[in-house]
Amino acid sequence: MVARADLTLDPLLTVGMLTIFLCDQFAKKGYTDAVLGVSGGVDSAVGVALLVNALGAEHVTGLALPAEESDPQSLVDAELVAKTFGIRLIVQPIGPVIDALYGDEADVDRIRLGNAAARVRMIRLFDYSQKHRALVVGTSNKTELLLGYGTWYGDLACSLNPIGDLYKTQLRQIADFLGVPQRVIDKPPSADLWPGQTDEGELGLSYDEADQLLFLMVDRDYSFPALVEAGFAPDLVRRVFALVAATQFKRSLPTIAKIGMKTVGIDFHLARDWGR
Amino acid sequence: MTGKRLVPVVELDPGPVFAEIGARHSEALSRTEKSRCLAVLDMTVALWWSNMKRLRLAIDQMAPVLGDIRANLAEHREAIAWAKRQKADLLVFPELSLTGYLVRGMVAHVGMARDDPRLIRLAKEAGELGVIFGFVEKAPDGQLFNCAGYIKDGALRAVQHKLFLPNYGMFDEKRFFASGQRIEPFDTPWGRMGLLICFDMLHPAVAYLHQQAGVCLLITISAAPARGVGPDGFMAGAEGFRIAQRANSRLLGLVTVYANRVGTEEGMIYWGGSEVLDPFGQPLCSLPEYDAARAICEIDLEAVERARTLFPHLKEGRPDFVLQEMWRLRMSSQRDAPREPPGEV
Lengths: 276, 345
What we know:
The complex is a heterodimer of chains A (276) and B (345). In chain A, 50% of the residues lie in helices and 6% in strands. Chain A has helices at residues 11-29, 42-55, 72-85, 95-102, 110-132, 142-147, 168-178, 182-186, 199-203, 207-219, 224-229, 234-246; strands spanning 33-37, 60-64, 88-91, 134-136. Chain A has a 4-stranded parallel beta sheet, sandwiched between helices. With 345 residues, chain B is of the alpha/beta class. Chain B has one domain (55-322): Nitrilase/N-carbamoyl-D-aminoacid amidohydrolase (4-Layer Sandwich). Chain B has 9 helices and 15 strands. Chain B has helices spanning 14-24, 31-53, 69-85, 117-126, 173-176, 204-212, 236-252, 302-310, 319-332, and strands spanning 54-61, 90-92, 111-112, 130-138, 144-152, 155-161, 186-188, 191-197, 217-222, 255-260, 264-265, 268-269, 275-277, 283-286, 293-300. In chain B, the strands form 3 sheets. In chain B, strands 1, 2, 3, 4, 5, 6 and 15 form a 7-stranded mixed beta sheet that branches. In chain B, strands 7-8-9-10-13-14 form a 6-stranded mixed beta sheet, with helices on one face. In chain B, helix 3 (69-85) links the parallel strand 1 and strand 2 (90-92). Classes of the chains: A alpha/beta (276), B alpha/beta (345). At the A-B interface, helix 1 of A face strand 11 of B.
């Protein structure tokens, strides 16, 4: 790679801004408590740390929702994160729900199983939210959001997301600053949908490379020739852009056909924070 | 008069005033009473003199409630009461302080005419305190403007429409607002004042025009969100405003005030960091970043004259030359191809 973009963040400033964001948004929405899925990975660990910083540990609940195929080490790490930041962790295996969903169906592929697991977790989180008046906080990072590496109405579903504008490599800087256990920061990122799965293996590129490319492509608006000039292989640039474009639906409301004068998702411009 | 005596703008002899008061109180005043009375008068005159050249400015770096004019008016009233207790002359609120920033498709619902009873009531409550605030003006022809208003002595005295509406990245103002067409500086007890609204400050011509119009105090009200966080405290969103404010003060010999809001709307986090700079570009008062805060700042307005003597940019402003060149560029832009650099043809 010829040029490297500097993705360094001031961690104190970033954490300060995210704390203000969380305090203010919880107050505006009239909530004091948060619930989030705690997987044992670095993203949800950063989510926990930020929420504890903003709301206090007694107002944060983590749900560990392991599937039958999940690595047992993930639950150990989730418990470590909960213990480190002093939050309550509720463990609810989702295997029986998945079993009930598919019954005797034999040929359920990994993608369907992965999506089903993500959506069962979403149901658990929003059910907890309704029962205990706690906002569901999402922890998809910017790299995942841009590459569409998440399940629509599954792990992407949440009320707010404090880390959605941080690339994975930026998130690691914040994680270190917040005191996330080193073991959690260092382990290979995984959606933990089947044994041995890693994000980087599945995407076919490292997070470092993906972040460099996405930062120049999205944040710096580099053209295709400029990206190639910067040292990225033309095929990689094409593949990543295609991935970003093909998954735009996951970052949008469903497409609505326009009939009237003002249409939801097209020209009905009302801020969510209206009146708050 | 004891202590440091300020140079009066207009010479005033307290003798006749004292004689007038003495005449009204026909009873003979004791020597002590006379000296007390004289001391009070002396202080009054000193204050009057100093008020001609000094401004006690208050900033309320607040977070408006989006779309809730009633709640925001309550905050304005509370801040006005505070500023009066602080004996401030002028109180400045951020951009769209009565409505919040992301009014979007609801803009018509929060628009106010200049004679809106709520504005008149606010002006009456402010009384002698000058107040600069942000609101949406619904003009008689139905157009909607992002505005800065100035109230003083019970009335809305001046309104400045936002001239440059940002319409890029996260900004979409042109969809909802009409652009202002002219600068509207106005005279105040503290000298001629100009009002800018946020993005106007990032267009150098606006500050230059105000200086040419005789402004000595340039006030920007702002709703600038943070963006582009980098290493070592760097935040790109703040940088442009900081540079522009310093350049405006230092190059144009202006006292500049930047009042930015705080709080969040959707995912936008407003960074505050309001500042007052003297006409040499040096900070007189800096408010915290990201937190709601209020501050009082004593401004020596004589410094404007000193700055313009030391750095005579105003004298060298050459508006005729600027006008001629602007006209020439405008006329030729359609016809002239870019010229080759000399020697490279």
